[in-house]
Amino acid sequence: MDQGIGNYTSLDFKGEPVYTFLFHSNNSDVDRGGICNVNTEITGSGDIVSAKLNISIPSYLVDGNVEVKYNSPGKQEESLKAEPPITIGLPLELFTNWTPNGFSPINRGERYFNGQPIISFSFTVSKKAPRGVHKIFFTLTYKDRNNKWHRDNQIAEIHIRRFYETSKGQLILMLAYIIAALPGFLVLKTIIVFLWRLLQTFLISF
Which residues contact 124 (CB under 8 A, 6 or more apart)? Predict the structure, then answer.
């Protein structure tokens, strides 16, 4: 991504720079074949001369490529599509406090523009992905003006719903209970409960 920062600059806070990577997902519970969206921020203070971000997603979770979007005011949105893991160089403007009217205590990496974060990414969950909880690892690496490297590690979790947690699975469960509650269906109720427990045991094993 473009490293040109023009007149962007940072306040001189003295000392070593300190930054951390933040993330927010509006759908951390997803189904197979669903879309996982993650918005990101970079917060902290201090001068740096270079930075990169590594996004490590298990390849078996992703159907196709991961799309990373970079959104900066006054510039055309940039988009990168690649198979995981993904490493991108971060524009230095993310770590600056410059604004058209002077300085601000808020870094550009902490801002949203037109309701969108500067960096976001998304991917389609594979229909063969194992159900349950999975981890996405982020590593933010940056170098200060004294050529010292710094690193911040973060972990996000996504939950791929098991069959009985999906809308279809819950509908089947509801219908099973309705049928089992009807008069004269005691035997059928016993069979359905037995089969449902057997199905749960089978699905949990995945």
Answer: 33, 34, 35, 36, 62, 63, 64
Q: Are residues 109 and 169 in the same domain?
A: no
**Cα 8 from Cα 94, distance rounded (Å):** 9
In-domain check, residue 81: yes
pTM for the predicted model, two decimal places? 0.71
Q: Examine the domain organization and report whether 137 and 98 are in the same domain.
A: yes
> What helix, strand, coil percent values describe the chain, rounded to 5?
25, 40, 35
What's the mean per-residue pLDDT of the chain?
A: 79
> Tokens at residue 47, please?
């001068």
- Does any domain span residue 32? yes
- If asked whether residues 36 and 124 sit together in one domain, one would say yes
Q: Number of structural domains, the chain?
A: 2
DSSP 8-class letter at 168: H
- State yes or no: cis peptide before 84, omega within 30 of 0: no
The whole-number pLDDT of residue 25 equals: 80
